[in-house]
Amino acid sequence: GDSVTQMEGPVTLSEEAFLTINCTYTATGYPSLFWYVQYPGEGLQLLLKATKADDKGSNKGFEATYRKETTSFHLEKGSVQVSDSAVYFCALSVSTGANSKLTFGKGITLSVRP
Amino acid sequence: DTGVSQNPRHKITKRGQNVTFRCDPISEHNRLYWYRQTLGQGPEFLTYFQNEAQLEKSRLLSDRFSAERPKGSFSTLEIQRTEQGDSAMYLCASSSTDREARETQYFGPGTRLLVL
Lengths: 114, 116
Fold this sequence. Notes:
Number of strands of chain B: 11
Number of helices of chain A: 0
Order of helices and strands of chain A: EEEEEEEEEEEE
Structural class of chain A: mainly beta
Oligomer: heterodimer
Order of helices and strands of chain B: EEEEEEEEEEE
Low-confidence stretches of chain A: none
Radius of gyration of chain A: 14 Å
Number of helices of chain B: 0
Number of strands of chain A: 12
């Protein structure tokens, strides 16, 4: 079946540090890939997505590139801010008929200290 | 567009009681999903509606769980004879059938259930 593996957390960084959060996947079909973010006390929000190989999703300074050869979708940001502290989820979707259900990784907690 | 809303936000119940949660999707979205999230885990798919039709149910959805979307707008998720293992965050998401947008799901804030 489909699955998403995220690196173990939590991750603690100082402000302006470089961020990489690893994500790899296995899928029975050709998935679309997503990063969702959950800020404290809030619901899941779509951060970025990529729908085909070599596509790069980007938003709010975050980037991730769909790498089919390594089945990966690592999240990066050049300079993190305290406001980036949140839980980050990698997810995939393989459309089967009309259903585009999401399969999520376990999530990783990022804490950014001033 | 006020986003996806869920009610109640929190529910505490005793084991064996029935509970019902409501989800109001974004108005023009005809796809609706329910997920369950336990502590330290990512959300897991429960069931999916397109308009009023329930098209897929996960094996996670035991016979004690039932979901409806009677008019293709809001949806309800009922859990009968709750068990402590049902304690979790129940998330609702909606998406459009527009080809470009259909893979993007918008999530509500969730209903946190605690079964004592």
